[in-house]
Amino acid sequence: MVVRMRVTRAHRDNRRSHHALKGARLSKCSNCGAYHLRHRMCPECGFYRGKQIIDVVALAEKRLQKKQAKLEEMQQEQEVSNSESSESKKASEKAEKKTKDTKSEKKTKTDK
Ligand SMILES: [Zn+2]
Prior knowledge:
Bound molecules: zinc ion
Oligomer: single chain
Radius of gyration: 34 Å
Strand order of the largest sheet: 1-2
């Protein structure tokens, strides 16, 4: 950078004096009175320009049902995995015993 082009602190700060962020411009919903972003559907009631775009209540109910179904599935899977894990534990214990046996056999062989 050439010294001639240097920006002083005052010059830089004056430029940045316009950089502050302003709050979002919100408008009131004509249907329910809640604030929402301009040119966006109202997230509270699903209305935009006096028309219902999305049935918010029905959507929320659907999502709830989906969540509950997923939760039930998870619980069932957990129950299954619990019973499986107990079996697998037994299997792993057996495997450990086998490895120990082989080790002891090897030791005996080395002793000879
Ligand atoms: Zn609304």
